[in-house]
């Protein structure tokens, strides 16, 4: 089969679509002909040698895919050759075929494209896990979502709205602010022009927010802690703005805050199956019905994965960047 192979060096990785050994699959897995996969920030890091796949996972890039089941393992029940599916992956999505544990599969609605399918698992599960399981967001609370126009952000805005929370976001351009408002953000802050802490405090009469979903990290730590109300939660999912920060520990104690670090990829397979099942019961029906929507910015043929990575690295996307595989 063909897959993306990372060549070049750590500073300048070169993504090449070329022949690699075929994938093997186990009795509890299905083999899927990949039709679409998507770019995630983790892929950019992995291509630069900065993010190793979990032990036992494919070395090939790609944390999600949508495609057609080509073969079914002997212990798999309920899935058939020809089923249109999508799934979260620990790696291996940038390829013509991938092996997927049956418990990780979601069936694509008939009217969905493969691009829509692959736009769901990584960012919607991340948003779901960190808003609700880690962040314990509940109806009537207020959440601040940094990088609101990112793949994760566009999913998180919609999920938080569906859970009847009030949503504030930060983003770096007027176009992104508008997109986030259209998805349901009540307050949208251009962090390049305004101080998000000031805006949050004005909007909440100095109370602060209940939860912050934060992919920025170090540079935001002090202001994030100040922007939280008593019993607030800060869930850190990324470090786009650096991994070192300072904060006033007095506020942590005095406001009885909680700071949580969370990754999806490193969770054991059984936990990922559980997350898939919970998402399938809780929020997948709202996506299937069209009430919530995967937000897609653009698509590149997988042969142009390098271009797609550059596009994402330049912060150009609102929502997901898709890689299509083969004839669509
Ligand atoms: N922990 C997990 O399990 C997990 C899972 C998935 C993703 N993530 C993380 O979540 C984040 C979003 O992922 P994604 O794939 O949705 O990203 P994405 O679509 O590529 O969007 C990321 C956006 O973040 C903003 N940004 C970049 N650098 C920034 C900085 N220094 N300060 C503030 N904003 C910055 C940019 O938008 P602006 O133009 O608005 O600046 C950029 O477009 C990434 O950090 C990713 O690693 C974590």
Find the CATH topology of the largest domain: Quinone Oxidoreductase, Chain A, domain 1
Return the CATH architecture of the largest domain. Answer: Alpha-Beta Complex
Mind telling me the CATH class of the largest domain?
Alpha Beta
Give the class from helix and strand content and strand pairing: alpha/beta
- In total, the number of strands is 15
Number of helices: 11
Instruction: Give the percentage of residues in beta strands.
Output: 25-35%
Identify the bound ligands.
NADP nicotinamide-adenine-dinucleotide phosphate
> Considering DSSP H and I runs of 4 or more, what fraction of the residues is helical?
25-40%
Structural topology:
Elements: E1 2-8, E2 13-19, E3 29-38, H1 41-47, E4 64-72, E5 84-88, E6 97-101, E7 105-107, H2 114-118, H3 121-134, E8 142-145, H4 151-162, E9 166-171, H5 174-183, E10 187-190, H6 196-203, E11 209-214, H7 221-226, E12 228-236, H8 249-254, E13 258-261, H9 269-282, H10 284-288, E14 296-301, H11 305-313, E15 320-324
Parallel strand pairs: 8-9, 8-11, 9-10, 11-12, 12-13, 14-15
Antiparallel strand pairs: 1-2, 3-4, 3-6, 3-15, 4-5, 5-7
The protein binds NADP nicotinamide-adenine-dinucleotide phosphate (NAP).
């Amino acid at each position: 089969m063909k897959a993306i192979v990372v060549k070049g060096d750590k500073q300048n990785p070169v993504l090449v679509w070329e022949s690699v050994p075929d994938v093997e699959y186990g009795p509890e897995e299905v083999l899927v002909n990949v039709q679409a996969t998507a770019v995630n920030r983790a892929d950019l890091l992995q291509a630069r040698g900065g993010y190793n796949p979990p032990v036992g996972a494919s070395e090939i890039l790609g944390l999600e895919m949508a495609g057609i089941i080509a073969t079914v393992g002997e212990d798999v029940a309920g899935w058939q050759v020809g089923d249109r599916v999508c799934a979260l992956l620990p790696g291996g999505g940038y390829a013509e075929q991938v092996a997927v544990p049956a418990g990780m599969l979601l069936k694509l609605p008939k009217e969905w494209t493969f691009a829509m399918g692959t736009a769901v698992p990584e960012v919607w599960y991340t948003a779901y896990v960190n808003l609700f399981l880690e962040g314990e967001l509940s109806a009537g609370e207020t959440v601040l979502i940094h990088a609101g126009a990112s793949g994760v952000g566009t999913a998180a805005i919609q999920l938080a709205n569906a859970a009847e929370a009030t949503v504030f976001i930060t983003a770096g351009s007027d176009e992104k602010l508008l997109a986030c408002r259209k998805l349901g953000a009540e307050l949208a802050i251009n962090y390049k022009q305004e101080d998000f802490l000031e805006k949050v405090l004005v909007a909440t009469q100095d109370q602060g927010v209940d939860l912050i979903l934060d992919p920025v990290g170090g540079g935001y730590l002090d202001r994030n802690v100040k922007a939280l109300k008593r019993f607030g939660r800060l869930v850190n999912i990324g470090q786009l703005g650096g991994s070192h920060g300072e904060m006033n520990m007095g506020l942590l104690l005095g406001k009885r805050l909680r700071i949580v670090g969370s990754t999806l990829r490193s969770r054991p397979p059984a936990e990922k199956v559980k997350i898939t099942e919970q998402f399938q019961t809780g929020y997948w029906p709202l996506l299937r019905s069209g009430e919530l929507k995967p937000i897609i910015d653009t698509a590149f043929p997988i042969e142009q994965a390098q271009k797609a990575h550059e596009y994402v690295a330049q912060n150009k996307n609102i929502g997901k960047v898709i890689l299509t595989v083969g004839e669509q």
